[in-house]
Amino acid sequence: MVEAEGTRYVGLEQASGVQAFLGIPFAEPPVNDLRWERPVPIKGSLGEVNATQFMPACMQTGSGLAWYHGMMSRVGVDPSLMEGPEYSEDCLYLNVWTDSDYPEPKPVLVFIHGGSNTGGWSYEPNYHGRALAERGVVVVTVAYRLGVFGWLSHPDMAIQNAGLHDLIVALEWVKRNIEAFGGDSDRIVVSGESAGADNALHLALAPAMAGKLAGVIHQSAGWSVTSTLKPEGGFALGEALVAHHLGADGNFADLKQISAAQLLESQLELFSDHYFSPIPDPETLPVSLQETMAGDLFPALTLILGSNRNESLMYIPEDAVLTNYLEGYFPPETWDDIKVMLGADLSELAQMDRLRSGVQYTCPSLALAQAAQDAGGAAYVYRFDRVREDFDAIGAYHGAELPYVFDTHDAWIPTDVVDYQITNALVDYWVTFLTNGSPNESESGDTETGRMIWPAWTQKQQALIVSDEVSAQTHPDAALCDFLNATQVASARH
């Protein structure tokens, strides 16, 4: 049992002294009159909270589970082995894993799940924190409103970017209470993958979080650089939702009377080609990331960031051709040179994968690393190349690194001795970063662990390459990204 702010949280005893506290409320349920409103923080005593089971995931169409099923089908795994959670608008809960026997305050990892801001949940199997807690980290995974419930914009809304507001309130709960769970409130690192990483980086720019984060781990979300929507575009979609349900003269406030199921149906119908992103907002995002970088306003952040070699492979349609990914982004006179840079010996599918992965994920991630370095911060860049046995159809796919950094390999994923060796190395780097602000025990030599130095990103463009072995070398896509940037590619939207 842990007591914080007068509330007694009764959790679960797990192996090796780890305690799990599941389904902790950090805000009032955002339902009825609170739909689309500012999240109301939970403060003060709740008496005794039974924190022994996960709570429903935030309302969604099931796209998060569909992603897993699609990935599993591609590699011949039975999709029924992965089950989804219940969904509800009442979903603002977080989960904590901590080692109750650890004698000193521990660094804190706050992880934000991905899912294109429309799907996913905070307790997907790969996000459970027991293994990291055994290594002396307090792990917190958080929920936030999704889709039209969390990312709808409208001029009549009291706040914009409700999902970011949810995450800010969750981080403020952690800041106030994590010491009761054995955490160090001065060593909070916010982390995420895909949309979760996009949100984590935006949180680092939010005024409410200034000076409260020790670092950011940004996995597979290079498109963060261009993810911010213009207000007029976001508002137009919100107005379209009002008109769809209430007619041209409808009032936004009356949407609160529409059922969640009807709103989800409308989301599928009206927003099928829309990516739910934040808009500029004085409280959560005063200046877009793109403008921050262009104006040399990037903060001096300490980052781990990177991408996977085959981020785009499983998203490429069967009838796609390379021209689809060149047209509209590059001048035609550069196409032959681009094909050479991609690798003339690669198949057209492999060329498309490398190009799309570069444009959407890798190249903007390297730009973020350079921005952090130029601002006086530090960035440690990785590329994840490891392909599991029989996974050639999806390669080092989007999300492939997650079971390694959490040490949570699913039973249905083929895992061998090499995978466990990589896991040990990456967990060591992650825990050291969380503990010291650098993935290295020292910048001159990792004498305690025997690990090689993970070089910080500089003009030398060094990165950690995670393949069948872990090595430090010039980033394999650095020259390609320099070339693409020189041709003034228009970054694609995730």
What does this structure look like?
This protein has 494 residues and is an alpha/beta fold. The protein has 2 domains: 1-299, Alpha/Beta hydrolase fold, catalytic domain (Rossmann fold), CATH 3.40.50.1820; 306-494, Alpha/Beta hydrolase fold, catalytic domain (Rossmann fold). Helix content is 32%, strand content 17%. The chain contains 14 helices and 16 strands. The protein has helices at 63-74, 130-134, 147-150, 162-177, 195-205, 231-246, 260-270, 289-294, 322-326, 335-343, 348-374, 402-406, 417-436, 478-486; strands spanning 2-4, 7-10, 12-13, 18-25, 48-50, 57-58, 87-88, 93-99, 106-112, 138-142, 183-193, 215-219, 302-308, 378-384, 462-466, 470-474. The strands form 3 sheets. It has an 11-stranded mixed beta sheet, sandwiched between helices. A hairpin with a 4-residue loop joins strand 3 and strand 4. Helix 11 packs across helix 14 (478-486). It is globular and about 65 Å long. The chain starts with a strand and ends in an 8-residue tail after the last helix.
